[in-house]
Design brief:
Elements (H helix, E strand, L loop, with lengths): L2 E6 L4 E5 L19 H15 L31
Antiparallel strand pairs: 1-2
């Protein structure tokens, strides 16, 4: 798995995944831009294991190239945004 981690501390982990030609869906994490939903979910699970966190703690967004943003706090359920 190709990953670039920028910050990893007691409060949060930030980084990005990189295209990997050897991985299913080329290491794609985006459900809105995939051919195989199960492969993307598997990639996300592998990333969670790599980071030693729960997949339930992920905040997965759809990049829209706009001026809009959504703030998600630890008090909100991530499942509300999936």
């Amino acid at each position: 798995m190709k990953v670039k981690v920028y910050e990893n501390n007691e409060y949060f982990v930030s980084g990005m995944t990189l295209k990997d030609l050897a991985a299913t869906e080329y290491n794609n994490m985006a459900l809105h831009a995939c051919e195989n939903t199960e492969a993307v979910l598997s990639n996300r699970k592998k990333l969670a294991e790599y980071l030693n966190v729960s997949l339930d703690d992920f905040v997965c967004t759809q990049q829209t190239h706009s001026a809009n943003f959504r703030r998600v706090t630890k008090h909100e359920s991530v499942k509300n945004y999936v």
